[in-house]
Amino acid sequence: MKRILLPLFVTVLCVSCAGDEGIPVYRQPERSVDERVEDLLRRMTFEEKVLQLNQYIVGLNTNVNNIGKQIEEVPGGIGSVIYFSDNVTLRNELQRKAVEQTRLGIPVLFGFDVIHGFRTIYPIPLAQGCSWNPALVGELCAVAAREARLSGTDWTFSPMIDVSRDARWGRVAECYGEDPYCNAVMGVASVRGYQGDDLYLTDRVAACAKHYVGYGMSQGGRDYTATDISMQLMWDTYLPPYKACVEAGVETVMSAFNDINGVPATANSYFLTEILKQRWGHRGFVVSDWNAVEQLVAQGHARDRKEAAWRAFTAGVEMDMKDDCYRSFFPELLAEGKISEKAVDDAVARILRLKFRLGLFERPYTDSLPETERILTPEARQAAERLAEESMVLLKNNGILPLSGVRDIAVIGPMARERYHLLGSWRCHGRAEDAQSLYEGLQQEFGGSASLHYAAGCDFDGADRSGFSLARRVALQSDVVLLCLGERAEWSGENASRSTLALPAIQQELAEELARCGKPLIVVLSNGRPLDLSRLEPLADAMLEIWQPGVSGGSPMAGILSGRVNPSGRLCMTFPRSTGQVPIFYNSRPSARPDQGHYQDIDESPLYEFGHGLSYSHFVYGELESEAEEITSDKLFTVKISVTNVSDVDGYETVHWFVSDPCCSITRPVKELKHFEKRLVRAGETETFAFTIVPARDLAYVDAAGNPLLEAGEFRIGVKDRSLCVHLK
Ligand code: GLC
Question: What is the pTM of this model?
Answer without folding.
Answer: 0.96
